[in-house]
Amino acid sequence: MSSDFESYEQDFAVLTAEITGRIGKVPKLVGDEKKQMVANVEKQLEEARELLEQMELEVREIPPQSRGMYSSRMRSYKQEMGKLEADFKRSRIAYSDEVRNELLGDDGNSSENQRAHLLDNTERLERSSRRLEAGYQIAVETEQIGQEMLESLSHDREKIQRARERLRETDVNLGKSSRILTGMLRR
């Protein structure tokens, strides 16, 4: 199971390295090359998201005792993914601003503050989304632990009920033997 996870990790590392390299090239390209590079990066980001989902599924299958280490690695991968998506958005914004400036002949000084403000808001939203995802993961893990505890308690209840039934049978048998002994003593 962990070998699958490690395989996904290696694929994720290679893919994120390729994405990082391509994101750096986006602002330097022009025309169709730039459009094609943006499309390729979007496709690779989707592949990376799918790999993260696969790794998450693998982590859920790992026994709870050793799940902690994998969960922390997943958090760091999700943060890395968020950073890649933010970098890609910035490179696309730079790309769209560049095209707009070429078309309108605008120097962009007035929009710099707006763009910075939008980037800050986007980062805040992404941080909030990551916090919500982390909270959701904690809720899922808590639910799983609760379910395991309920199953354990159910098994314990069955054992106690069987023991109680055996005690009742023993009590009945003791009563019978007591009556027999009393009858024998009278004779």
Automatic annotation (TrEMBL):
The gene is Vti1a. Its main location: membrane. The lineage of its organism: Eukaryota, Metazoa, Chordata, Craniata, Vertebrata. Residues 31-61 form a coiled coil. Belongs to the VTI1 family. Keywords: Coiled coil, Golgi apparatus, Membrane, Protein transport, Transmembrane, Transmembrane helix, Transport. It is found in: Endomembrane system; Golgi apparatus membrane. Residues 117-184 form the T-SNARE coiled-coil homology domain. The keyword Coiled coil applies. It comes from Leucopsar rothschildi. This is Vesicle transport through interaction with t-SNAREs homolog 1A. Interacts with distinct SNARE complexes that contain either STX5 or STX6. Interacts with NAPA and, to a lesser extent, with NAPG. Identified in a complex containing STX6, STX12, VAMP4 and VTI1A.
